[in-house]
Amino acid sequence: MHLPAYSLHLAAWVGLLGVVAVYAVLIRVPRFAVSKRQAWSFLGAMGVLLVSLTWPLANLAAHSLLVALVVQRLLLLLAVPPLLFTGLPVGLVAAMTRPSLLDAVARVCSRPVPAAAIVTAVSVGTLTAPVVSAQASSAYARGGLDGLLLLAGCVLWLPVLHPVPGTGSMSALATAGYLVVQSILPSFLSIVWIFARHPLYAVYAHGRVLFLSPLADQELSGFVAKLGTIFVLWGVAFVIVVRSERVAEEGGDPNPLTWADVERELERAERRDRHRARVPDAPGRSRTFGDAARPDDDPDGGSSSPSD
Prior knowledge:
This protein is mainly α and 308 residues long. It has one domain (10-261). 66% of the residues lie in helices and 0% in strands. It has 13 helices and no strands.
């Protein structure tokens, strides 16, 4: 079987071109200005997305080859999010995550344990046989799963890159350990694929595709998933540790505090103060900052009364 017939994937093209157009407008705003390196990083993310979501990779992943699905997933999880985070203006990310709900979600997802749990759940859940069959039969299901995987990739990289201000940072060794864990837990199904004696997905259990039998496709998928994940995440972990040691030797701070971090902490403190101001301190009464001390309140805790 040869490559699938060409299809335009118009929705993907229109969506990505729209995102690039919005980005081009936003970076003209002075507070959202970016460097050339950031701009190229963003365009790189859009290019990888285009490869992932259009012909021929998307067509092969949907109906023909499990290994194509694995490559598509690796691109969405490991390649697009770090390029995207690097290319976005810091001010734009700060503005987008300023609402208290989004800020709280970002803080939780920037912690290693929740991040590892979320990525593992999404990675394994989207590879169950019913879900794989659903994405093969529905373009809407494929789009939803692609978006879910992209979000999981963002969660994976949040504890490493810390694009959201005020989400804290780990030491280089802790970050390396987190990346090693992320290379093992979400991809444990690859071992099952390598040693399985029969195809596990009916969608891909048909004749040879590009000279690969269904079983050979499955075994190759296991090696690609495991080795690809290890190569990327362990490589990043090594770079982080080496860079941190070099910065420490030069007397610098591997994790410097930025003004965006300080500003976000001040915003959180202000929200906490407003919340405390609305908390009732007596039944039927809520104290606010505008409350003034009552004239009969004694500063020492008692109550004053007119002298006889």
